[in-house]
Design brief:
By secondary structure, the chain is an alpha/beta fold. The protein is 40% helix and 16% strand. The chain has two domains: 218 residues, Rossmann fold, CATH 3.40.50.2000; 200 residues, Rossmann fold, CATH 3.40.50.2000. An eight-stranded mixed sheet has the order 10-11-12-9-8-13-14-15, with helices on both faces. The longest helix is centred in the middle third of the chain and has 27 residues. About 2% of the residues have low confidence.
């Protein structure tokens, strides 16, 4: 009988927890699945509760929420909040877990998900480990044609050793106990492989579990072109999920909507067409919809019966509004449908923006005040996602930039190909899970 692998998962953030859980779900579907334990290094790891995975060691939510790398002041607040003691206790917990498994004679391994922190913990453990790199991509510094031209003098240090991953990170990835590294994309895998890292291009788990509630295929009909002309333009709104930042982002998005409405209405009046616009607010469940609704109504939107919308929408509890020839839907349960239905997005989010782009669609991003979606983050995201991101400096400029993009169908085709290339095909979690089992049990 094959021995059962004991697997400890280390992750450092809410988004990383979710990616880890997707892989763990697939691991549990395999024959002779591992017995899984988790240690979230940042936050309290609520995502692991979905799979009833026991958490070992100390967990605690820090003041920064995990965004210390964006602001030195956040790091100081975390240290004051007990970060050093928490980290030392977590290292002890990992070593104790390893010791327990070795005493029982079970094969054991570690899956690190995130950045250098869980990777370092995995190396310190002294046992075999695999690493899912969620934080870095070569696309931040280069594309298929070569290095990006950067004005920032400090940009040199991002790639000073020939990779977005620094020598000390690659050292941790190339140790004997590191059996597999799963980068975000093909380009990053290619660079790491050239540097003797055991990297595998199996896709990005962020693109898994995004199936909509409706079929995504479209039938080509004789009047398809006419239907496309009169079909509403659908705009997905992605304000992020961090409180209170998401409410500030929503205020900026509402200004962008006003700009877009003015531009679309002017175009319709000049062309004598009746093309309408539908806005889909994909709102995280932790946000207070009443706060968001106040912003909506203050911009002139009136409540409207969901039954009279020009489209069928899966969330019958959604809040719906109308203004002139435009409709507004707020939903906290139909996230996947919002991604698939949208033609474009107005986005001030991290993961959600990447998922929208990964479906082959353009996202217009407005830099916020942070701590996450600030100008630095928005600029880095635009490098990472390339032509799929249109950076809008001021929300009042959004309408003009949307109009410019929609005038060039060839550009939209290139954006579709770019998004699919940078984010990868669905099914990555299953492919990674199978590889983890084979490598950690070697």
């Amino acid at each position: 009988m094959t021995s059962q692998l004991k697997l400890l998962v280390l992750s450092n953030g809410h988004g990383e927890d979710i990616i880890a859980v997707r892989i763990l779900h697939e691991l549990l579907q395999l024959p002779n699945p591992p017995e899984i334990f988790a240690l979230p290094l940042v936050g309290e790891g609520y995502a692991y509760q979905k799979l009833n995975i026991p958490v070992i060691g100390s967990v605690k939510t820090m003041p920064s929420g995990g965004f210390v790398y964006m602001d030195g002041r956040q790091l100081i607040r975390d240290v004051q909040g007990g970060l050093i003691n928490l980290t030392l206790n977590q290292i002890k917990a990992v070593k104790q877990w390893v010791k327990t498994q070795q005493q029982t004679g079970n094969p054991s391994g570690i899956l690190a998900v995130g950045d250098i922190l869980p990777l370092l913990f995995a190396w310190v453990s002294g046992i075999n480990y695999a690493f899912v790199g969620t934080a870095k991509s070569e696309y931040y510094v280069r594309d298929e044609l070569g290095l990006l031209k950067r004005k920032n003098k400090g940009a040199y240090w991002e790639n000073f050793s020939g990779s977005i991953y620094h020598p000390w990170e690659r050292w941790l990835m190339s140790r004997h106990h590191c059996k597999a590294v799963f980068p975000r994309d093909y380009l990053t895998t290619k660079i790491l492989t050239q540097m003797r890292v055991p990297a595998f291009d199996l896709g990005n788990p962020m693109m898994d579990d995004l199936q909509p509630s409706f079929p995504t295929y479209r039938l080509y009909e004789t009047d398809a072109e006419h239907k496309e002309i009169i079909r509403p333009l659908i705009v997905t709104l992605l304000p992020g999920s961090r409180i209170p930042e998401a409410y500030n982002n929503w205020e900026q998005i509402m200004l962008g909507i006003s700009s877009l409405m003015e531009t679309i209405c002017d175009r319709d009046r000049l062309s004598n067409t009746s093309k309408s616009v539908i806005f889909l607010g994909a709102i995280a469940p932790n946000l207070d919809s009443s706060i968001l609704t106040k912003f909506v109504t203050s911009h002139g939107w009136k409540p409207f019966p969901i039954e009279e919308l020009p489209i069928k929408f899966s969330d019958h509890q959604a809040l719906t509004f109308k203004q002139n020839n435009a409709y507004f839907i707020l939903t906290q349960t139909a996230y996947n449908d919002c991604l698939h239905m949208g033609d474009i997005a107005i986005a001030m989010a991290g993961t959600a923006t990447e998922q929208f782009v990964g479906l082959g669609k353009p996202a217009f991003t407005i830099p916020g005040k942070g701590p996450q979606f600030n100008p630095g983050f928005a600029e880095a995201q635009s490098r990472h996602l390339g032509d799929s991101i249109i950076l809008v400096e001021k929300p009042q400029n959004l309408g003009k930039q949307v109009k410019n993009l929609l005038a060039y169908p060839d550009k939209l085709h290139a954006i579709a190909e770019n998004g699919l290339r940078r984010m990868g095909k669905p099914g990555a979690a299953q492919r990674i899970a199978e590889c983890i089992m084979s490598k950690l049990l070697e």
